[in-house]
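Changelog excerpt

This revision adds worked examples to the README so contributors can see how folded entries look when concatenated. The first example is reproduced verbatim below.
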Amino acid sequence: MKELSKYNIDIYGLEDKQYDYDMESGDAFFEELDQDIIEHGHFKTHVVLNKSATMLQLNFKTEGTLRLVCDRSLEPFDEAFSSNERIILKFGDRDEELTDEIEIINRNTNRINVARYIFDFIALSLPIKKIHPDLRTEEDEEEFPDDDVEAVLVYSSGEQEETEGEEKKEQIDPRWEALKKLKGE
């Protein structure tokens, strides 16, 4: 727990203004957390805390490298990452997580530990496919298609729909027309 205590921020008695904190850690950080996702890495985090009477707004800018294992070759490799996230802690009567970004903390809280937030942001910055840089192809590196790639239009609103609707009216099956005549329409 000695490593994680470096991530304690005493909030009791802070004035309503901005505070900056710099934190740095490595393998000891990942070992102390109860997790199996990341075993080795090194990172630096800059935390900007904006305190007001009703809430704390924390902005985390984290950069570093992680030792990952390739999903294809099972070879270890270093992967650089960068994360820029924020979380809002509102003062209330109890501790509760409202959304991924907003939490309620007890008014009487004297100290917060930001280690779990930092770890969560690092874990979210991991690539879905962990591919060794020597084995990567252009297809692996493209997470989102470029504008040059042809796309299929799934839904569109506008005049084009109206003309398609008119064409459908004109192309009614003749058997249905005969049934409408029997019905008297």
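The second example, added in the same revision:
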Amino acid sequence: MATVSCSPSLADIRALQADNLDRLRDSLQQINIRDVVPLLVARNVLRSYEMGALYAKGSDEQVDALIDLLKTKNHWVGPLTDALIRNGKAPIAKILLELQNGK
């Protein structure tokens, strides 16, 4: 008899996280990328060349590019939450956590 796992697959988790990023898009427009991205690089979520590519974009495109980049990563939720809190964006971090917890 085969055992059935109750845990969601990595693909399901990533799809949920991508959806949550899209829901946060408007809120993330309020952040300064240069405040958040260095912390994501320090926590090994992003690489320094990815940081440079984000900085090279126009200010209107930076948040969209960051969202698209995070959708390709694993384990970004905690570091992004931390970066938002450290930069005075705790209300956005709270929304992210609520989305992750399915509220």
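Reviewer comment on example two: The domain at 10-100 is CATH 1.10.533 (Death Domain, Fas). Helices lie at 10-28, 33-42, 48-56, 59-70, 77-86, 90-100.
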